[in-house]
């Protein structure tokens, strides 16, 4: 279903993603982070939709459709590095910290921090060019909003 999209991601120098493909790549990364601990909770699904809807101004139906496509893509996709590279190329640096906030929001949606999720998020932040300090500050902002 996503053969052309995945083919572009695995090229040595992939072309810059179109906005719609960048959305899909970010959504798939959100799904991957949510699944990192082996549990894909309804709270995480809801948070993914909230993050996508807020970030892109989507209707609830469009948000659900994007998440559903992202779940399929995430299962078919090769590795996190390629997703992250596609997002890094598509998202200006100043917006990447908000991507990290969205990822932390999904990780924390089920009320538990898992070591696998933390490890994946540290990798993703690094690949996006967001340092550990800024990632930790993003996590703290998300945690403050949960209280």
Structure description:
This protein has 147 residues and is an all-alpha fold. The protein is 76% helix and 0% strand. The chain is built from eight helices and no strands. The chain has helices spanning 3-9, 19-35, 42-56, 60-76, 80-90, 93-108, 115-128, 132-146. The mean pLDDT is 86.
Topology at a glance:
Layout (H helix, E strand, L loop, with lengths): L2 H7 L9 H17 L6 H15 L3 H17 L3 H11 L2 H16 L6 H14 L3 H15 L1
Helix pairs in contact: 2-3, 2-4, 2-5, 2-6, 3-4, 3-6, 6-7, 6-8
Q: Strand portion, in percent?
A: under 5%
Which word captures the global form? globular
Number of strands: 0
Work out the radius of gyration. Answer: 14 Å
> Stretches where pLDDT falls below 50 for ≥5 residues?
none
Distance between the termini: 40 Å
Following the backbone from N to C, one meets helices and strands in this order, namely: HHHHHHHH
Q: Bin the helical content.
A: over 70%
Based on secondary structure, the structural category is mainly alpha
Mean pLDDT: 86
Task: Specify the number of helices.
Answer: 8
Largest sheet: none
């Amino acid at each position: 279903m996503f053969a052309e999209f995945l083919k572009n991601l695995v090229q040595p120098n992939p072309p810059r993603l179109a906005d719609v493909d960048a959305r899909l790549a970010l959504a798939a990364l959100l799904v991957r982070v949510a699944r990192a601990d082996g549990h894909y909770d309804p709270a995480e699904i809801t948070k993914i939709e909230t993050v996508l809807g807020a970030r892109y101004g989507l209707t609830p139906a469009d948000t659900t459709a994007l998440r559903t496509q992202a779940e399929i893509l995430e299962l078919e996709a090769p590795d996190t590095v390629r997703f992250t590279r596609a997002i890094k190329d598509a998202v200006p640096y100043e917006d990447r910290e908000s991507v990290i906030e969205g990822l932390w929001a999904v990780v924390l949606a089920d009320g538990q921090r898992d070591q696998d999720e933390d490890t994946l998020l540290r990798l993703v932040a690094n690949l996006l060019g967001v340092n550990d300090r800024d990632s930790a500050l993003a996590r703290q902002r998300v945690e403050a909003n949960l209280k």
